[in-house]
Design brief:
- The chain is an alpha+beta fold.
- The chain has 2 domains: 2-13 and 34-212 and 227-291 and 466-525, FAD/NAD(P)-binding domain; 295-464, Succinate dehydrogenase/fumarate reductase flavoprotein, catalytic domain (Flavocytochrome C3, Chain A, domain 1).
- The protein contains 15 helices and 25 strands.
- It has helices at 2-28, 60-71, 89-92, 104-115, 122-132, 135-141, 186-197, 251-258, 274-281, 362-366, 379-384, 393-398, 407-414, 418-434, 508-525, and strands at residues 39-40, 49-56, 76-79, 98-99, 146-147, 170-174, 180-181, 201-203, 208-213, 220-227, 230-242, 264-265, 286-287, 292-293, 296-298, 319-322, 340-343, 346-349, 356-361, 402-404, 455-464, 466-467, 470-471, 478-480, 486-492.
- The strands form 6 sheets. Strands 1, 2, 3, 8, 9, 10, 11, 24 and 25 form a 9-stranded mixed β-sheet that branches. Strands 12, 15, 16, 19, 20 and 21 form a 6-stranded mixed β-sheet that branches. Strands 4, 5, 6 and 7 form a 4-stranded antiparallel β-sheet that branches.
- Helix 2 runs parallel beside helix 15.
- The protein starts with a helix and ends in a 6-residue tail after the last helix.
């Protein structure tokens, strides 16, 4: 599996090198950058807006970049794809914790172990943790009330068996009662308010769509954005910083890079890979495109552009997951570490033999809602707030839940082999009667028979907290080309081109927003204005 991932990465890298060379050849043949998806600086006749630094995206990374740059005396304009009530990306709907290791050396050791065979340059890891260890002090400096754990850091480690796990402390903001406050948009809201206080300009419903590049120097000079159906040209006198998140809601990228037929966000539905395409168009290399916080399995309602989160399990414990061939494929209660499961001494992603269905009976249907609105994170809990009916009857009437009087009839309705599904259910019920799961060892107190008609099925799909891949960056948050050289005046922060190459430490993403947001803000602000 490691060789396959490495070969795929090298293939993409070779493609990008060829593409970069091809773009140069096209220019020599008379084709300008516009034909390659880039707007040439020489073609811009009028600027509609300008700022020292232009930041795309107002998640935690973008806001941190803006705050740091403003405090260093640079004016900042932020372009945000979403409307104001939906803005904030995954940062807004996350748990709001951030990795705050008490010991730099142990944090570096742990980060290297998390890479698990897919190394990241030491200079990037070291830069990250030079800032993660100081993030609490920076947040206090801008007015936040940060609570750090007194002890028991290793208990926060996603992978406690890895060396350096004692560095895995997680900090939160004070909830107003002297307690660590998770979720409920606390940290993101504080950062947004801090940016507004500093008179950072934010333009909502204004997505960046193309970068403006000087083809002679390769410098990025600005952004073409879309506002109220019109193209606008935004000058960046010092730099552009891409903080546009991942591609959890881009089905083509999910197929190409994650090798899944489909997948959907648990967080923001606005992450569609925009920054990745823009960076590629100006010659950026990519890394970590198959790394993700996920998948988990959940339900995506028709006409929704996000998944609900949670596995759609009845409260009776009488349910199983069946794969495309009608068989069970895993212990449904297998512990997952952000979508990774233990496998022969390493970790692999949860298998997703689609289409997958959760199967249960009438007792399960009546036991309570398959999904609840409770919780303090996720898009549905924080933003959309669709409330699932208590007895699942509303969703049954909508056709979201499939109903049948017999298992054979249910199999036909969901496209499974009736003989296979009957055999799968018979084996499951026999295991329940014996008090032991004969196939996958599900705990005896987590099993119950499926035997009371009618029977039901709910289709489950892969869902992601976020994807981690995107343009490769260096220790200074500069975006690199396939030869390892910075693309002048172009930076990134956050989960767009994150440093996570395989295993992920919980709260590490928001820590990266803060760390590389600060790095990007400092280095972009230090650029000499080009006009």
């Amino acid at each position: 599996m490691g060789a396959k991932r490495q070969d795929a990465h090298l293939a993409r890298r070779d493609f990008l090198k060829t593409a970069a060379a091809g773009a140069g050849g096209a220019a020599l043949a008379g084709f300008g950058a516009s034909e390659a998806g880039v707007v040439q600086f020489d073609e811009v006749r009028k600027w509609d807006h300008e700022a020292g630094i232009v930041v795309l995206g107002i998640g935690g990374a973008g806001l941190t970049t803006a705050i740091v740059a403003r405090d260093l005396g640079t004016d900042v304009l932020m372009l945000e794809k979403a409307k104001e009530s939906h803005a904030g990306g995954n940062s807004r709907v996350s748990m709001q914790g951030f990795w705050c290791p008490p010991d730099y050396n142990q944090a570096v050791i742990h980060q290297r172990a998390l890479n698990d065979g897919f190394p990241v340059p030491d200079e990037v890891i070291e830069a990250y943790h030079q800032y993660t260890t100081k993030n609490p002090d920076w947040l206090r400096k801008i007015g936040a009330q940060v609570i750090q754990p007194a002890s028991g850091n290793a208990s926060r480690a996603s992978y406690p068996e890895f060396p350096g796990a004692e560095s895995a402390a997680v900090c939160f903001l004070d909830n107003g009662k002297g307690q660590a406050g998770s979720g409920f948009q606390r940290l993101w809201t504080m950062l947004r308010d801090s940016a507004v206080k500093r008179q950072v300009t934010i333009m909502y419903e204004t997505p960046g769509i193309e970068l403006i590049q000087d083809c002679k120097t390769r410098e990025i000079r600005g952004v073409v954005a879309e506002r109220q159906g019109k193209r606008i040209y935004v000058k960046a006198k010092k730099a552009v910083v891409l903080c546009t998140g991942g591609f959890e809601n881009n089905q083509e990228m999910i197929r190409d890079y994650l090798s899944m037929p489909c997948g959907y966000p648990f967080g923001t539905p606005y992450n569609t890979g925009d920054g990745i395409r823009m960076a590629m168009a100006v010659g950026a290399d990519l890394w970590h495109m198959d790394s993700q916080a996920g998948p988990t399995l959940s339900f995506k309602p028709p006409d929704f552009d996000f998944a609900l989160g949670g596995g759609g399990a009845p409260r009776t414990r009488g349910f199983i997951w069946v794969a495309k061939d009608g068989t069970r494929f895993i212990n449904e209660n297998t512990p997952s570490k952000h979508g990774k499961i233990a496998y022969h001494g390493t970790y692999i992603q949860l298998p997703t033999p689609l289409p997958i269905h959760s199967i249960f009976d009438e007792a399960g249907r009546k036991s309570g809602p398959l999904f609840t609105l409770g919780g303090n994170m996720g898009w549905n809990a924080m933003i959309e707030r669709y409330k699932w009916s208590d007895d699942n009857s509303v969703e049954l009437a909508k056709g979201w839940i499939i109903k049948a009087d017999t298992i054979r009839e249910l199999a036909a309705k969901i496209g499974k082999n009736p003989d296979t599904l009957e055999k799968t259910l018979a084996t499951w019920n026999k295991s329940c009667a014996a008090g032991s799961d004969s196939e996958f060892g599900r705990a005896s107190d987590r099993i119950a028979p499926i035997q009371t008609p009618p029977y039901y099925a709910l289709e489950l799909v892969p869902t992601f907290t976020n994807t981690q891949g995107g343009p490769r960056r260096n220790k200074n948050a500069q975006i690199l080309d396939p030869y390892g050289k910075p693309i002048p005046r172009l930076y990134s922060a956050g989960e767009l081109g994150s440093l996570w190459s395989w295993n992920y430490q919980g709260a590490g993403d928001f820590a990266e927003c803060l760390a590389f947001g600060r790095i990007a803000g400092e280095h972009a602000a230090a650029e000499k204005p080009w006009s």
